[in-house]
Amino acid sequence: MQYGMIGYFVPHSLYPAGYHCNPQEPLPFASLASQKNYMSLYLMCTYSDPGQETWFREAWAKTGKKLNMGKSCVRFKKLEDLPLKVIGQAIKRVSVKKFISYYESATQGTNTSRRRKC
């Protein structure tokens, strides 16, 4: 659990720097949250790479299910709204090494005083 969500993370043993907002926390990879009117699936592994996000959107479209995707999450009301195979494939497609590389390039040069305000 992190930030009130069920989460899957890159442990400190693999990425000692941790999450830039709070280095004491492990680097988030995917999370599931329950909101007031819907549930959210956060796929940081998908949003970190434009090519991966394109693949995800195209694979989802092929299922015929409606995609309700925000800047950092996929929103849904019931489990049947999700193409679970596509989600599993999306997570499987991104190795931890690749995710860390994307993450570091995205946060490179971030001011440390600003980073802690996430």
From TrEMBL:
Species the sequence originates in: Symmachiella dynata
Organism domain of life: Bacteria
Domain YdhG-like: 1-93
Pfam families linked: DUF1801
Protein name in UniProt: YdhG-like domain-containing protein
